[in-house]
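Same chain as my last thread, 496 residues:
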Amino acid sequence: MLLTQLHFIEEPTRLENSAAIDLTKQESENLEPHLVPFKNQRLKLGDSLRKCHQLFPLTWSGLLTLAAGVIGWCTLGSRHRDLVISAASFILGLLVIVLMVCVLINALRLHLRLRREEQDIGTLKLETGYPRTTDYQLEIGYFPFTEITWSWTYPVQTDVVTTSTFKTITETVTAQQRCQADHITRHFVVKDIIGLARMEWERTFPTAVTVIPNQENFSANQVLPSVSDGDEDSNPYGAPKGDRIEMRKYSNGDSSRDIIWKIYARTRKLMVRIPERAITAQPRSCAYLIGAHGDSSSASLARTILERHMLGDNWGFGADGTPGVITNLGQAIQAIAQSGNYALMSAHEAKITNLSAFLREAEAIGYNNCLIFIPSRLAPPPPPILSRWQRLFNSQEGTWPDWAKPARQALNSCHMTITWLMGVEKDPRKLASATEKAPLPPWQEKLQRYALAPKDAESDTSVEVVKAIIGESTPVWLYASDSCRFLVYNNISEAQ
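reply #2:
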């Protein structure tokens, strides 16, 4: 029924020029069949070695300290009868052994406590960026020279801070990525206060976790509803029962207020106005969220628009990972959280977006406008070890993910009005103006980006996404979280 239009819109200034990026993605070569068993054996061996390393009670520092104490006692201490070296070696060895024994005892206490703990299937709801103290607490008494901490290995991108008292340890969780999981994997660590002894292991808890994106802080006055093109049978501004725009001959019982006196004066015939045939208001606007790397701001924008009813009354929603058209707000928020499960999947398990099926179903229901929330990044960043080298020698910023090409192909057979909507953290015009003020040769720009950028830094590629996804009939709307402003790009020339 309604499609949101944005005001306080600022026309984008000149942005950084860059070459168009090809949407085609090179498929990785499949592993040869005779190499599969060797790869499985290598993975099993690596997993076994990792578990042995985690259960070994000494760290590298503790192992070196113990070796130094033993070597000092056996060489200079006993052979040359050096009392100073003998005493120092004995103290070092004794310190390591005492701390190792304390860690072993405390680890055994923790293991027995976790075995006695009941496996309650609870639920936990989090919001990205906001810390929350969960109901999980570990009631275990204090043991000298040691401390117990843990972190979450599943779901990923979750920061955990443990707070210890004399008898209880509680956790405060801050999620960074939306998701929906059916269990939590906690990585427990028992270590000493110096860092010489350490034991760690993982345990799975059957707790349902739902992480939803945070809301954006723009006001509802910045988004105003406008009426889309109406039906030929009725005025879209009129009541659903029909306006009195048709006429017929006067009959007994008709009200005199409905008589068209101008026609009577011209033809001497009494004609009265009658309502047009009644119609039922049809749903008009829907929205879809593509779940991929770099969609955190777009997911927050989708949640804000849904919860503030900016799509009108009869809206529909869809997201990757949830089939069909959703019309319930609670189910829509769950779908937004579930669309972030791509971060929990491996590369071969991740699915391509099902935007095409959603558009076909929404068009069959009767929607004629669709907002598509798209990510603002090209591809996931490379591993930390290779990130700087790839950033220095690679001319492209990244390869296109699986959603880009199918998303454009889905519009070929769609007759709805499509609008791309992207959430970004920083205004892309600020990045462009900073680049224009101090232009550098390409090799100097790469060297500066390699030397100054942190290892986990990721360049902003929202403008490249706009250039590749924009069309003549599909404008791209950008919402910058830092400035709380909307930008609109109607064609490729504005993005350049």
